[in-house]
Amino acid sequence: MNAPLSFPVQVPDAATVARMAPELDDDERESLRARAKRLLKERDAVLVAHYYTHPDLQILADETGGHVADSLDMARFSHEHSASTVVVCGVRFMGETAKILNPEKRVLVPEMQATCSLDLGCPAAAFSDLCDEYPDRTVVVYANTSAAVKARADWMVTSTIALDIIGHLKDRGEKILWAPDRFLGDYIQRKTGADMLMWQGSCIVHEAFKADALERLLAREPGAAVLVHPESPPAVIALAHVVGSTSALIKAVQELPNDTFIIATDRGIFHKMHEMAPHKKLLEAPTAGEGATCESCAHCP
Ligand code: SF4
To answer: Does a cis peptide bond (omega within 30 degrees of 0) precede residue 222?
Structure first.
């Protein structure tokens, strides 16, 4: 396997992070919710929200006939829904993905500053130059990329299908150029043994999880199952009972017999997990800082 390449990765500045919305009181929340419901109806619009968004948005999506899901399922739902306008509560690339699948519909992204460190860290021009340098490699990109990067790729995968697709390409004797997440790429490489040249992007939420602190927490909670998103560092993935996409982790909470779960992904997912398995105890996996929530993007999913 080739050594990983090194690229400068752009990260959001403090001003972007500072744009986090303040919490609402009950009256403000109720008034905004009523207004949003009225406008969605009047404008023939449907709201789709990522599992990582604020619970208020997830509740609003559910109450108005919209959908709460991972990024691919958000785009699929909006494609199948009859509304002429789709409101995507997610980061920018999720809005772009919805537009790719719904070119005839109006797609609105309420917060254009909601970006993703994986998307920001993989500029289309630099990525295209790299593809030109390695014409013998099949270009596979993760869903968390801009539409321009996706347009340069041979394949686009989600975390749910990444292992199967890359395993299939390896069986066909193809060498891979992978972008942008180096941790997810590393996980896929170890699982499939494929020859993968890696772009060096990372998710600022998942890379913050700490394996040593997770081990200590697991020692205090020996019956817990550890659920980890594959964008996390290898040492954290090594402690996981389940590694999977957001949808797979929600399913694991519902289906595994454990009473307690330690979860290494954005804390926004807890809303849906509590809803699906209200009697289970959910703990956040320890991080290096304040916790795991996607501040790359002001109102980040
Ligand atoms: S959680 Fe990570 S991968 Fe997901 S949108 Fe935020 S920065 Fe991107």
So the answer is: no
* Residue owning the nearest CA to atom 8 of ligand 1: 116
**Residue ranges, the chain, pLDDT below 70:** 1-22, 289-301
Question: To which H or E segment does residue 67 belong?
Answer: strand 67-69
The range of the structural domain enclosing residue 143 comes to 118-202
172-226: pLDDT as tens digits: 999 999 999 999 999 999 999 999 999 999 998 888 899 999 999 999 999 999 9
Q: Which atom of ligand 1 is nearest to the CA of 206?
A: 2
Q: Please identify, among 90, 115, 140, the residue that sits at the C-terminal boundary of a domain.
A: 115
What is the spatial distance between Cα 86 and Cα 98, in angstroms, rounded to a whole number? 8
- Residue of minimum CA distance from atom 2 in ligand 1: 203
Residue 3 gets which letter from DSSP?
P
| H/E segment holding residue 122 | none
Q: What is the CATH number of the domain that holds 72?
A: 3.40.50.10800
Among protein residues, the one whose CA lies closest to atom 1 of ligand 1? 294
**Cα distance between residue 276 and residue 294, in whole Å:** 22
Closest by CA position to 144, among listed 212, 72, 205:
72
